UniProtKB/TrEMBL annotation:
Organism taxonomic ancestry: Eukaryota, Metazoa, Spiralia, Lophotrochozoa, Mollusca
Protein's name in the database: C1q domain-containing protein
Source organism: Magallana gigas (Pacific oyster)
Database matches in Gene3D superfamilies: 2.60.120.40
UniProt entry keywords in alphabetical sequence: Secreted, Signal
Pfam families: C1q
Length: 185
């Protein structure tokens, strides 16, 4: 009987791998769509000194690119990625302010003031292999993120959506009203 179950398991994995199309979503395939992670905070974390949030509850970590020890996602393959960040503040008379960063560059922020504030944000960004993405407290802020094993409110999720590359347009003219004076941007 165990031989039949083992054979059935191998046959199912082979079928899944065979059914994956170009770009791949099959087990063990590293085409687009096969890099994903979702993590949460299962404990209350006091944050000070602009430290990185180490989300300790791993829901999924396809391609093992997120480290629950450092709180850092290290991009294993270039492409377009979506990142979601959500948090729950448990402070009275303090501001929660978190920043989602790519290599030290600010991508997006979330903030909430006073007890029981929640906040979230999402961004689509191009990453190169080796780029890092992480959640960090804003410099000068001190607060606590709430979490317990049975109450996970702070989450960080990222996944690859495309192999496409993207180059940001050049920075616009610093004068947003230049067009009113006949100047070009």
């Amino acid at each position: 009987m165990w031989t039949k179950i083992a054979f059935l398991g191998i046959a199912m994995i082979s079928t899944i791998n065979a059914q994956a199309g170009p770009g791949g979503t099959s087990l063990g395939d590293h085409g687009h769509g096969s890099v994903a992670f979702s993590v949460g905070l299962s404990r209350t974390m006091h944050i000070a000194n602009a430290e990185t949030v180490t989300f300790d509850k791993v829901f999924s970590n396809l391609a093992s690119a997120y480290s629950e020890h450092t709180g850092i996602f290290k991009c294993p393959q270039s492409g377009m990625y979506v990142f979601h960040l959500h948090a729950y503040d448990m402070n009275t008379d303090k501001a929660m302010w978190l920043e989602l960063k790519k290599n030290n560059e600010l991508l997006v922020s979330i903030s909430g003031y006073d007890s029981h504030a929640t906040a979230g944000n999402t961004v689509l960004v191009h990453l190169n292999r080796g780029d890092t993405v992480y959640v960090k407290a804003r410099q000068g802020q001190e607060f606590s993120l709430f979490g317990r094993n049975d109450e996970i409110y702070a989450t960080f999720t990222g996944y690859k959506v495309s192999d496409a590359s993207y180059q940001a347009p050049p920075a616009p003219d610093q004068d947003p009203f230049a067009f009113l004076n006949g100047r070009r941007r």
